[in-house]
Write a structure and sequence with these properties.
With 699 residues, the chain is an alpha/beta fold.
């Protein structure tokens, strides 16, 4: 389904790019160049109307004192109507060679042209020089314009004027081959013998002189009703028709001027259906591109607003944190010194469990450590028991999943303050003490710590490190002050036992048990806050496959939790703040925008091909600069060295695509109702407290 949607969007962009940007109505002064050695002498020296549909090439010209009046490049919503008014005023008919895209945009004008008794001819779909394009594109251009005419009028035309053509002597070999190709498709080519040169906009008098015949020979006059401002054309036409009538000239359409009957004929039902299908497809592509453009503008506004919002809120959060308060209304209170129960759920964590337990045991705050071995087969429990550390308890149980392990640990906990930590995470010595301080406020039920990437070397580690600092931690500062924290991460979170008991412990309804639990606490009326100086160091996935599995579980589980707690949108108090602020933020920033992201990338490619590549590159650079400025600020807040920000540009063109594909697959899984299994993370045994963090207050 995803592939089908992206292919459909790509096709729409290609169609719209081709019809609107690849060619276009331009200056008719394109000089003819190239050899004319293969051009038939009959054509080079014959009349301007060329019939090459048979082996015997024939040409024709209007009768004496007859002027075949033709207009190119329309229809135009302003000037075609005014030209038609002048023609009706003088009871004159003309031939309008129309551009297919303009016909699709203004079919009512073509119907009016025909209703007034005028002829319509083909001037290609996008006003391309037929002599400079391959045969397949000539066919596409001519047939596309014909289908636009059929869809607008129900009639087909046998007349063609190649864009940028002029008189017979200017026909080159390439133009002649284009004329022959068109003739094989049944078209009669109409050149010109007089050029009004109104495309130069030389002034009304000059145009009027240009359209005045020098003798009595019949002429085919070239004028324009589209392609720019044609006020001079309209004024000169009105004056010239009055004078030509007085001089005894007959002004009429091409077909009438040469005695060619039925240049336009009713199209068959099959032809009308095919034309309607083609035109509907082009219009649909225009609609799709317009919607995408609107979506891009809206998403740009949202992203810019988010950048301003999170940076400004993070600055305020930082000021409050320096004053020792997690919120402006947090009460002054003595430090929390109550002992804490730290629960470590573990399933096959042999690679890192020793580092995790030792780091917690080294805490400056009094702790008991409860390791719940959830049916490990790699000796995890044995490793912990062999450490012989005081205040460390090991509980073994049959494999029942992480929520069950956490609930088991909660039941065995001796204290009212509980910290939950993953088995692939290490603490700094002061982490627990810093983490639990917001419990001085009795309204606080849970606290999120600051998760750091331990194995941040290499490009994949750098990308995740940037994401944690710039994305997750800036967002948590925003969620904290907005009182809508959606997730206390499994790597580091503190909870009141009372709060956990009131919501029934940790649920196994979703794959994101930490998000589900946090939302349940908010809906129960508890405040959930963020403590940026409580740092935990965790192992990040070291391969794309492992990263995909982790983020797929996170994203799918978050969607499950959002759906489970959707009722919070209608609640009041902390639950309502979670629903109307937190869930809306997650829906827009973490679901809808990532779902739209592939379209953004397709549109960027479309812009590089069909639009101004410099402007597209400038927009991308501006977006990157905003991201970089946010990154610099976030790294400063977290006291991180700036060096990893070198990976930010590549993150936007590689890592971001991987993350939105995760969201797309998660959304598809959710819509399809597919049950996703728990994916266990790979462990690498790289856990350690970074030397600069040991015994220090900065990270």
């Amino acid at each position: 389904m995803l592939s089908a949607v992206l292919v459909a969007v790509a096709v729409a962009l290609l169609v719209q790019g081709y019809t609107q940007h690849l060619a276009g109505i331009g200056d008719d002064a394109l000089a003819a160049s190239g050899s004319a050695s293969h051009v038939s002498g009959t054509v080079a020296h014959g009349g301007p109307v060329i019939d090459a549909r048979s082996a015997q090439i024939r040409t024709a010209a209007p009768r004496e004192r007859t002027l075949a009046l033709t207009f190119d490049d329309g229809p135009d919503p302003t000037w075609t109507s005014r030209v038609l008014q002048v023609l009706r005023k003088h009871h004159v008919h003309a031939t309008f060679f129309v551009v297919g895209t303009a016909v699709i945009a203004h079919p009512e004008l073509v119907r009016q042209i025909v209703a007034d008794g005028n002829e319509v001819g083909v001037h290609t779909l996008t006003h391309v020089d037929l002599g400079s394009v391959p045969s397949w594109r000539r066919q596409l251009e001519i047939q596309g314009a014909q289908q636009a005419i059929v869809d607008a009028t129900g009639m087909s035309s046998s007349l063609l004027r190649p864009p940028y053509s002029s008189e017979n002597a200017a026909v080159t070999d390439s133009t002649w081959w284009a004329i022959r190709d068109a003739a094989r498709a049944g078209y009669i080519t109409v050149l010109s013998t007089m050029d009004s040169e109104d495309w130069r906009r030389p002034g009304v008098d000059a145009i009027e002189r240009n359209i005045t015949p020098a003798g009595t020979a019949g002429q085919v006059l070239l004028m324009h009703d589209g392609g720019g401002a044609r006020n001079q054309t309209v004024a000169a036409l009105d004056a010239a028709l009055t004078r030509l009538d007085a001089d005894g000239y007959r002004v009429t359409s091409v077909g009438d001027a040469i005695g060619l009957a039925q240049t336009m004929r009713p199209a068959s039902l099959a032809t009308r259906i095919a034309a309607s299908t083609t035109v509907s497809g082009i219009r649909l592509s225009d609609l799709v591109v317009n919607l995408i453009t609107a979506g891009l503008v809206l998403s740009g506004i949202v992203m810019l607003a988010r950048a301003v919002l999170v940076v400004s809120v993070a600055a305020r959060h930082n000021r409050l944190a320096r004053r020792g308060r997690h919120r402006p209304d947090a009460p002054e209170a003595p430090p929390i010194t109550d002992p804490v129960s730290v629960i470590v759920p573990a399933y096959n964590e042999a690679a890192g469990i020793e580092a995790a337990v030792r780091s917690i045991a080294a805490s400056t705050h009094p702790v008991e450590i409860i390791v719940v071995d959830d049916g490990s087969t790699d000796g995890t429990a044995d490793i912990v028991e062999a450490l012989g550390l005081p205040n460390v308890k090991v509980i073994r149980q049959e494999n029942a999943g992480k929520p069950s392990a956490l609930n088991t640990g909660m039941q065995a906990a001796s204290h009212d303050l509980i910290v939950m930590v993953d088995g692939d995470t290490v603490f700094e010595s002061d982490t627990v003490r810093a983490l639990v301080q917001p419990f001085a406020d009795p309204r606080v039920g849970a606290i999120s710590g600051n998760t750091k990437i331990n194995n941040r070397g290499g490009i994949l580690g750098a990308w995740q490190h940037v994401e944690y600092v710039v994305g997750f931690n800036l967002d948590r500062r925003l969620f904290d002050l907005a009182e809508c924290m959606p997730t206390v991460p499994g790597a580091i979170g503190a909870f009141r036992r009372e709060a956990l008991q009131r919501v029934g412990g940790v649920s196994n309804d979703t794959l994101a048990e930490d998000t589900d639990l946090t939302m349940a606490l908010s809906r129960d009326g508890w405040r959930v806050v963020y403590r940026d100086d409580a740092r935990a160091w965790t192992e990040a996935p070291a391969s794309l496959g492992a990263l995909w599995r982790q983020r797929y579980r996170w994203c799918y589980g978050t969607m499950q939790a959002m759906w489970k707690h959707r009722g919070a949108v209608l609640q009041r108090g902390p639950a309502g703040k979670l629903g109307r602020r937190g869930l809306t933020y997650l829906l827009v920033l973490q679901v809808l925008l990532p779902l739209f992201a592939p379209v953004v990338d397709l549109f960027a490619i479309y812009g590089l091909i069909f639009l101004d590549p410099v402007r597209i590159a400038a927009v991308w650079a501006a977006f990157l600069i905003v991201q970089l400025l946010m990154g610099i600020y976030a790294f400063r807040l977290d006291h991180e060295p700036m060096r990893p920000l070198w990976a930010l540009p590549l993150q936007q063109v590689v890592y971001r695509q991987l993350m939105y594909l995760v969201v797309l697959q998660s959304a598809f899984t959710a819509v399809a109702g597919i049950h996703l299994r728990w994916h266990r993370m790979e462990r690498y045994g790289t856990l350690s407290v970074p030397p600069r963090a040991k015994g220090s207050g900065t990270a």
